[in-house]
Amino acid sequence: MSVLKYENIQWSVPTLFFDDSFAIAYADVLESLNVPNPIKYVYGMVSSQWSGGRNATIKLQDKDIIVKVIKELTKRGLTPAFTFSNKIINQEVLENEYCNWLLDVGVENNCQFIIVSDKLFYHIKSRYPEAKCVSSVIQPMALPELAKDVQKEIDFYNERLDRYDRVVVRPDFSIDLLEHKDKISDISRIEVLVNQTCRKNCPGYCYSVISKSENINSEINTKIKCAVEMYTREHGSADFCRTQSIMHTEELIRNLMDIGVIDFKVQGRHYQKTYCRQIINDHLLKDIGTSLLVKDKVTDYANKLDQTNYLYSNNFMDKNFVLIQRKRNV
């Protein structure tokens, strides 16, 4: 009897440069048990001008460590996906040396790139036509008018499917997929975010914020973590409390599998690490019997990797902590 909650689907989890030990533990423990690893993609990004408001906890731009982490993941069959979610891209930003180094290393190691800006998409494709690019969920969430016109949103995704390797749909629309599946040009390349905590038909204020770069001259308050304040200012607190969060049930996930969706995504980079691990476990593994033992074994192994400094040395982490504290105190 399998310990996996779902068979024959691929998960994308938010562990890259955030909780790499947990992704490695999943791969190693499940391989030792001869269980297929349900994790296909690990996404995230270190701080850079191409990334957006939800950067990794690893702020230090240490090239050797970045390469080490990528190689440890890829040799286990995991595909790193860099979240290049900055929406505000100009020519100067496109030419940033460090960002282009990240791109070079990513392509060299068969990583993928989750993108918001079309300018960045064409920049990447001009350098590396073979690069695998993913249309970020921020793209439709930052266009609230799509929620008002189903056909317009379908056309939006089909246009993205013509150019991108995968397309992450707006969480609300993943429910509409069941009705409009035949209108999507290739549903096997659609990715669904399963644990979105935003309210249904939210205008996506927070995604507009997240997509901004770390530009210190930006007038956007990048400290905003969700749209609660902005949503209630626009619609009122009563409407916010009355509207349910978008959370996909097991039944809905299975219905989406039945129509051909194979890629599912868990969010969690803005969660505390222990809670993020719980969210991943709850979606990937069953909650009974042997599965509970596997969850414990994965967590114990991940903690051991952290304690033995398998990925990040004490010296690196100490310097990183100092940098984070400095940034907070600016």
Rg, Å, rounded: 19 Å
**Strand order in the sheet with the most strands:** 1-2-3-4-5-6-7-8
Helix percent band: 40-55%
Quaternary structure annotation: single chain
Percent range for β-strand residues: 5-15%
Q: Structural class of the secondary elements?
A: alpha/beta
Give the helix tally: 15
CA-to-CA gap between the ends?
54 Å
What's the mean pLDDT score? 84
Number of strands: 8
Give unreliable regions as ranges: 213-225, 316-330
Largest sheet: 8 strands, parallel, barrel
Q: What order do the SSEs take from the amino end to the carboxyl end, as H and E?
A: EHEHEHHEHEHHEHEHHHHEHHH
Shape category: globular
Q: Top keywords for this entry?
A:
disordered C terminus, single chain, alpha/beta, about 325 residues, 8-stranded parallel beta barrel, globular
What features would you describe in this structure?
It is a single chain. With 330 residues, this protein is an alpha/beta fold. Helices cover 47% and strands 10% of the residues.
Question: What order do the helices and strands come in, and which of them pair?
Answer:
Layout lengths: L9 E4 L6 H13 L6 E6 L18 H12 L4 E6 L6 H4 L2 H12 L3 E4 L2 H10 L4 E4 L2 H4 L8 H14 L2 E3 L2 H10 L9 E4 L11 H6 L17 H8 L1 H6 L7 H9 L4 E3 L7 H12 L5 H18 L6 H16 L1
Parallel strand pairs: 1-2, 1-8, 2-3, 3-4, 4-5, 5-6, 6-7, 7-8
Helix pairs in contact: 1-14
Nutshell version of this structure?
The protein is of the alpha/beta class. It has helices spanning 20-32, 63-74, 91-94, 97-108, 118-127, 138-141, 150-163, 171-180, 205-210, 228-235, 237-242, 250-258, 273-284, 290-307, 314-329; strands spanning 10-13, 39-44, 79-84, 112-115, 132-135, 166-168, 190-193, 263-265. It has 15 helices and eight strands.
